[in-house]
Each structure stands twice: as structure tokens, then as C-alpha cells.
From TrEMBL:
Signal sequence bounds: none
PROSITE patterns given in the database record: ABC_TRANSPORTER_2 (PS50893)
SMART domains recorded: AAA
InterPro entries (UniProt xref): AAA+_ATPase, ABC_transporter-like_ATP-bd, DrrA1/2-like_C, P-loop_NTPase
Keyword ATP-binding included in the entry's annotation: yes
GO molecular function list: ATP binding; ATP hydrolysis activity
Organism, scientific name: Agathobacter ruminis
Residue ranges annotated for the ABC transporter domain, each copy included: 6-236
Keyword tags: ATP-binding, Nucleotide-binding, Transport
Entry protein name: ABC transporter ATP-binding protein
Length: 313
């Protein structure tokens, strides 16, 4: 069994009367890419800041690499790389100087530091911008600089808080690829996002957060098994009789059939061969149909079924 990288027990954080984190429990193993997925305002950044001891909290315990995390636990802090939601770099330093500054907080050896800074520049693809000042960088490049500053010292645990917000698709893909590469090189990753596709793409396990509470935790596959909806079949068809809709509803695993705008939508709660059965039925009744689509639920469906609201605003 892998060792624990981060353990959060019964974390509670209040901002006056607002309960921002509500008895949150997390256990993140070394080697994972762990996703904290939740809408804006659900408490992701607050949780990260508590984990890092940047914020005091009202209740709970936090352990990092199996030691209690405290504001002055510098030995633990040296093993952590943080990429904050708000880009935090020095305007008066160039790209290279910024990375060197942050790397220098942890790496004293000059030669090693030079090597690490260069590796971070190459890793984030900032070779052509090393002499640039931050204000000359696009949003995507600035994010990449923010990441380079957070990871140059080769931390064992890397925490990235919404690193792809306001980033062009090219930089976004580069960032996601980079995170997976850092993980392959051995780093444990905590990744917060309100983009379910990203979280599903890169995370080995996911905690879904809403109103400061963890409402579900597991692999994407496990999370999808928590809900009733397992398969969504849509068929373009001109018309369907009410009798046939009732007959489709009676098929095994089908629990909802709706027809709207020449589109038949059939929701199934499990089973295989659902699509074949549906098509067999329609063909038997000599319907002709156009586009056919069968989809698995998304994490948005999971969020929707558990909370009653959309993850996307
Ligand atoms: N410094 C603060 N003072 C008061 N309320 C805050 C503060 N920071 C965050 N909040 C509130 O706490 C809740 C959680 O915020 P946050 O952790 O930033 O969520 P997320 O990162 O998921 O968007 C929100 O309702 C937010 O408005
Ligand atoms: Mg946030």
C-alpha cells in the first residue's frame, strides 16, 4: 500500500458566519493525481490554503507525508510546490529571474539551482521568453511561468489551484500534459478545478466538493456508479407514438423515455445491450431514424444527481 501524502481529517473553516469548509476528510496517496472538483465558491482554495497552513482553521487535523502540518513546518514545506490560483510573480524580475528566485528559496547549491531553473524553463516551454518581464506575457505564458516557479525545486507534492483558468487551449493542453509528466516523474499532485473534463482526463481519484462538503470521492468510474444514470441513448427520429414510448419504457434497465424536437432520449440505469434492444424495438415497428448516440454519464451527471444542480454555471 502506498504511503499517504496528505491526510485531512474533519477540517472546518469558517469566515465569520460562512462555513467555507464543512468537516472535510481527504486521504491522498503518494503517486496520485488527486482532483478536487467543485463549482466556484465550493471551498477548494480555502481547503488548499488550510492544507498549506497559510490559513488557520476552526477544527481538524492535517498531515503531510505522515507528519502534522504546521505553519512553521519548513522541512515539509520544502517538499511542496504550490501553484496558486492567482498568479504570483515579481513584476520587476524577468521570467528566468522569477524562477531562480522561487527555486532559490529551497535550493542553495548554485550549480544545482542553475540546472533546475533551466529544466523548469524547458519543461514549461518558456525558452524563448526567459528575458521577458511578466507584463509582456500572454495569459497562458504567465500561467506557465507561475507553474515553473512552483515546481522548479522538484517538490514531491505539487498543489495546483485552477491552473488552467483564463488560458488558451494550446497552453491548457500543455499544462495538463505537464502535470501528467510531473506525476510520471514521481510527484504526487493535488489539482483543483471546476472543469470536470480536465479532472476526468488527468486525475486518478477525485473528491467532489459542494458548499465546503465532500459529497463523493473515488475514481471517475466509481463516482459514476454512485448514480442511477448509466447510459444515455439519443436517437434522431421524426415521430414516435405514445404507445411505443410506453413500450420502450418497459424495456429492461430503461427508466426514462422522452421525445422532444425529433429527438428520442432514453435513460438506462445499468445493463449492457441497451442500445441494441432499443434499436431492435424501433426497427420491428418499422421506424426510420437518423443519428444514434450512446453516451456514458459525465461527472456533471454525478454532480447533478447528488446535488440537484449543474456543476457548470
Ligand atoms: N477571505 C475570505 N473571507 C470571507 N469569505 C471568503 C474568503 N475567501 C473565500 N471566501 C468564501 O468562502 C467560500 C469558499 O471560497 P473558495 O475557497 O475561494 O472557493 P473555490 O476555491 O472553490 O472557488 C466562498 O463562499 C467564498 O466567497
Ligand atoms: Mg478557488
Amino acid at each position: 500500500m502506498n504511503e499517504t501524502a496528505v491526510k485531512v481529517k474533519e477540517l472546518v473553516k469558517r469566515y465569520r458566519e460562512l462555513l467555507a469548509v464543512d468537516h472535510l476528510n481527504l486521504e491522498i496517496k503518494q503517486g496520485e493525481i488527486f482532483g478536487l472538483l467543485g463549482p466556484n465558491g465550493s471551498g477548494k482554495t480555502t481547503t488548499i490554503n488550510c492544507i498549506l497552513s497559510l490559513l488557520s482553521y476552526d477544527n481538524g487535523e492535517i498531515e503531510i507525508f505522515e507528519k502534522p502540518m504546521k505553519a512553521d513546518a519548513y522541512d515539509i514545506k520544502a517538499k511542496i510546490g504550490v501553484v496558486m490560483q492567482n498568479v504570483a510573480v515579481f513584476e520587476e524580475l524577468t521570467v528566468q529571474e522569477n524562477i531562480d528566485y522561487f527555486c532559490g528559496l529551497y535550493i542553495n547549491d548554485k550549480q544545482l539551482r542553475k540546472q533546475y531553473v533551466e529544466e523548469a524553463i524547458q519543461f514549461t516551454g518558456l525558452e524563448d521568453f526567459r528575458k521577458f518581464y511578466p507584463k509582456k506575457l500572454s495569459g497562458g505564458l504567465l500561467r506557465r511561468l507561475n507553474i515553473a516557479c512552483g515546481i522548479a525545486h522538484k517538490p514531491k507534492l505539487i498543489i495546483l489551484d485552477e491552473p488552467t483558468v483564463a488560458v488558451d487551449p494550446q497552453s491548457r493542453n500543455r499544462i495538463l500534459e505537464g502535470i501528467m509528466e510531473l506525476n510520471r516523474q514521481g510527484a504526487t499532485i493535488i489539482y483543483t478545478s471546476h472543469y470536470m473534463e480536465e479532472v476526468e482526463q488527468i486525475c486518478s481519484r477525485i473528491a467532489i466538493i459542494d458548499n465546503g462538503k465532500c459529497i463523493a470521492q473515488g475514481t471517475a468510474e466509481e463516482l459514476k456508479k454512485l448514480i442511477k444514470k448509466r447510459e444515455i441513448i439519443t436517437i434522431d427520429i421524426l415521430s414516435v407514438t405514445a404507445d411505443d414510448i410506453e413500450a420502450l419504457k418497459a424495456l429492461p434497465h430503461v427508466y426514462s423515455v422522452t421525445f422532444e424536437d425529433s429527438k428520442l432520449t432514453i435513460l438506462c440505469d445499468g445493463g449492457s445491450h441497451n442500445l441494441v434492444r432499443v434499436l431492435d424495438y424501433l426497427q420491428g415497428k418499422e421506424y426510420s431514424f437518423g443519428h444514434i448516440h450512446s453516451a456514458l454519464p459525465t461527472l456533471n451527471d454525478v454532480f447533478l444527481e447528488i446535488t440537484g444542480k449543474e456543476l457548470r454555471d
